[in-house]
Design goal:
195 residues, globular, 4-stranded antiparallel beta sheet, 51% helix, 7 helices, alpha+beta
């Protein structure tokens, strides 16, 4: 039974919570609200949800958060000859982390984690679904195209595209292609349609 103030949203039970903020944070919250054209309550709810779903676990795992400028400098001095080895190690780590959280790592679960991780780290990545009719193939499949535009340099593009390519292959998907340059990377993955 729901209490007053509780609601259902997209199949999820939603609870009401009242919080107190100091004056400076209240002013910042209101400014964010104006900038995003969302109510202060909506912005506050998003902040709390992101902290619970993402940052809480990063803190407890000992993850470190870098600004994009610092990350770009670190990645720019990365020895290109080691990117293949590093990306393979990172792909294994991604699969291991998801297994710890989810149990089984399937393609949809991997995709969900990649999209969520990028979103919560304020990195742009889009998934474009293509049906077999879009590809003019007779095969019973569709393709997912993952495109990321960023300002982190060519080493970042190469590292990320190769890491995700290896992770997709580790869950049994065929990577059709992957391309990258200093501002973006693009990976095209065959997504077999279940019979």
């Amino acid at each position: 039974m729901m209490r007053r103030g509780d609601a259902e949203l997209s199949g999820k039970k939603i609870h009401q919570l009242n919080i107190r903020l100091d004056h400076e944070n209240f002013i910042v919250l209101n400014q964010i609200s104006k900038d995003t054209k969302q109510s202060p309550s909506t912005v506050g709810s998003q902040i709390v949800s992101q902290w619970i779903e993402f940052y809480y676990y990063k803190i407890h795992r000992g993850d470190v958060i870098f600004s994009k400028q610092v990350l770009r400098k670190i990645i720019s001095i990365l020895n290109k000859s080691k990117i293949d080895r590093i990306s393979k190690s990172m792909a294994k780590h991604i699969i291991k982390e998801i297994k710890l959280q989810e149990g089984e790592v399937t393609y949809p679960v991997l995709v969900e984690h990649i999209l969520k991780w990028n979103s919560l780290n304020h990195l742009s990545i889009n998934r474009i679904k293509q049906s077999s009719s879009d590809n003019h193939h007779n095969d019973d499949y569709c393709a997912d195209v993952f495109v990321s535009k960023h300002s982190l340099g060519c080493n970042w593009s190469e590292l990320e595209s190769k890491t995700y390519t290896k992770a997709f292959e580790m869950v049994g998907q065929s990577v059709i292609s992957h391309e990258y340059d200093e501002d973006m990377f693009c990976i095209k993955v065959t997504n077999k349609i279940p019979q």
